[in-house]
Amino acid sequence: MPSTLNRRRLLQGVGASALGAIGASVGAQSFGFVPNQRYPDPAVYILDPSFAKYRIYSSTVEQLGSGMRWAEGPAYFPDTGTLILSDIPNNRLMKYEEKTGRFSVHKEGVNYANGNACDRQGRLISCEHSVTRRVVRTEKNGQITVLADRFEGKRLNAPNDVVVKSDDSIWFTDPLFGINGEWEGSRATPEQATTNVYRIGRDGQITAVITDLVNPNGLAFSPDEKKLYVVEWKGTPHRSVWSFDVSADGHTLSNKTKLIDAAGPGALDGFRVDRDGNLWCGWGFSGAFAPEASDIGGGMQAHLPLGKSEEMDGVKVFNAQGKPIGFIRLPERCANLAFGGPKRNRLYMASSHSLYALYVETHGAV
Question: Does the annotation count 269 as an active-site position?
Answer without folding.
Answer: yes
